[in-house]
Design goal:
There is one protein chain. By secondary structure, the protein is of the alpha+beta class. The chain has 6 helices and 19 strands. The strands form 5 sheets. Strands 11, 12, 13, 14, 15, 18 and 19 form a 7-stranded mixed beta sheet that branches. A hairpin with a 5-residue loop joins strand 7 and strand 8. InterPro entries: Ribosomal_Su5_D2-typ_SF (IPR020568), UDP-acyl_GlcNac_deAcase (IPR004463), UDP-acyl_GlcNac_deAcase_C (IPR011334), UDP-acyl_N-AcGlcN_deAcase_N (IPR015870). Keywords: Hydrolase, Lipid A biosynthesis, Lipid biosynthesis, Lipid metabolism, Metal-binding, Zinc. This is UDP-3-O-acyl-N-acetylglucosamine deacetylase.
């Protein structure tokens, strides 16, 4: 299977969830083997240089996955756009923005899916590299855990737990095996969510300033406040899977393996990536010059332009 990039540059504007700032975002095609990278167009000098993404740049995981470089450059809330890039198998792209945060759009990855569809996806000449999990790698923290296990495909299983009546109405666990299920149908529309009391606390700390009922599910003491309700009966756990897929794609390569988590979040997801990279016996890099040898989970990547 070949690497992929965009057929053309594409532009969109939106609002940062936490900053409340208006953000201009542009995605550009990028060369083979360049990976996913970011550039802040509102900065100058060294701070305006291109930032090649790696798991080791995720140095702030409060409420989102945020790049923080040695020069203090920040690019926040990258998980939703990364999730969309993973769904379309985009290996190489330059993401430019004029603010410290990717726009939240509607709180899901669907607007970024539409953006990629508008740009078109093209094959490149170099082979796509996959990280294949060879043995179980697990991170445990108080009250939560995540793990990779060997699996000839890509499967995600997550469980959430909240002591709140809204969450008692739906299944707290969701599993999706991409050999038979579509990311766009099953995951992309799931929105971020938060509790009303948390929103008020965040705003007192100058966070969540761009959040509203059009870009997040907001929950009060008893119910969902959004008048349209939920997009899926179990939208909350599906959004956590959306986040996890985006967090894992910060690796810059698709993963052949199974990911499982209980009450996972951005910090522990990133810790798992660092843990597997630190153990050279836990994985291998593989390529598939003949697409017939691809695991079935990757046969369903949307067609290129």
């Amino acid at each position: 299977m070949l690497q992929r990039t965009l057929a053309k540059s594409i532009h969109v504007t939106g609002v940062g969830l936490h900053s409340g700032e208006r953000v201009a975002l542009t995605l550009h095609p990028a060369a083979e083997n360049s990976g996913v990278s970011f550039r802040r167009t509102d900065l100058t000098g060294e701070q305006s240089e291109v930032i090649p993404l790696t798991p080791y740049l995720i140095n702030d995981t409060r409420l989102s996955s945020t790049i923080v470089t040695e020069n203090g450059v920040r690019v926040g809330t990258i998980e939703h756009i990364m999730s969309a890039l993973a769904a379309y198998g985009v290996d190489n792209v330059l993401i430019e923005l004029n603010a410290p945060e990717i726009p939240i759009m509607d709180g899901s990855s669907l607007p970024f899916i539409y953006l990629l569809q508008d740009a078109g996806i093209v094959d490149q000449k170099a082979q796509k590299r996959f990280l294949k999990v060879l043995k179980t790698i697990e991170i445990k923290e108080p009250g939560k855990w995540v793990r990779f296990t060997p699996y000839n495909g890509f499967k995600v299983t997550l469980t959430i737990e909240f002591d709140h009546p809204v969450f008692n109405r739906s299944n707290p666990t969701f599993e999706i095996d991409f050999a038979g299920k579509s990311y766009v149908d099953e995951i992309a529309r799931a929105r971020t969510f938060g509790f009303m009391q948390e929103v008020e606390l965040m705003r007192s700390h100058n966070l969540g300033l761009g959040g509203n009922l059009s870009n997040a599910i907001v929950i009060d003491d008893t119910d969902v406040l959004n008048p349209e309700g939920l997009r899926y009966p179990d939208e909350f756990v599906r959004h956590k899977i959306l986040d996890a897929i985006g967090d894992l794609y910060i690796l810059g390569h698709p993963i052949i393996g199974a990911f499982e988590g209980y009450k996972s979040g951005h910090a522990i997801n990133n810790a798992l990536l660092r843990a597997i990279l630190a153990d050279e016996t836990a994985y291998e890099w593989v390529e598939f010059p003949n697409d017939k040898d691809l695991p079935a989970a990757f046969h369903g990547l949307p067609n290129v332009a």
